[in-house]
Amino acid sequence: MTGIVINVDVRERTGTGGAREVRRAGRVPGILYGGQKDPVAISAVSKDLLKAIRSGKFLAHMIELQYGDEKQPVIPKAIQWDPVTDLPVHFDLYRVEAGSTITVDVPVKFINQETCPGLKRGGTLNVVRHTVALDVDAGAIPESLVVDLAAAQVGDVIHINDITLPEGARPHIRGRNFTVATIPGRGGAATEEAAD
Description:
RNA Polymerase Alpha Subunit, Chain A, domain 2; 15% helix; elongated
């Protein structure tokens, strides 16, 4: 759990008119769905929601939803942005049942780039997947997947099987050892030098 708590109110009016009314009041409309319950129209204070989003731990992490005295773990699923103001105009949250397995996009973090021999010899880090979809226990969502480049050479290809996944986590895409990143040489010269 990230420690992020979003206070919400239940919206009485739905649809375009209801959403505009909520936005005029300085709030952002949203929907809470999933689990065994019906979807619920909700709203959150715009500045509180924006602060949570900018924390960097909002999407793909479990947060708490508070309505009155009730708290419930949820996963943010989507945010819609205004193309002019770049502010959130709608959000979707997904209920998390205790002990359930969920699919989340986990960011990939690359470490030791400054000491990577392949990058020092003229290679470039080509990130194919900035996030990887994992099936994980709702209470054990990892912050990130770490790729150590300390021994990576020019021409190396980093596959999902090369990354140590947290216990109980597995890639959502199965049966394929997909590429996460590559280290190609510049113009082929670094690759030929590495081969020698």
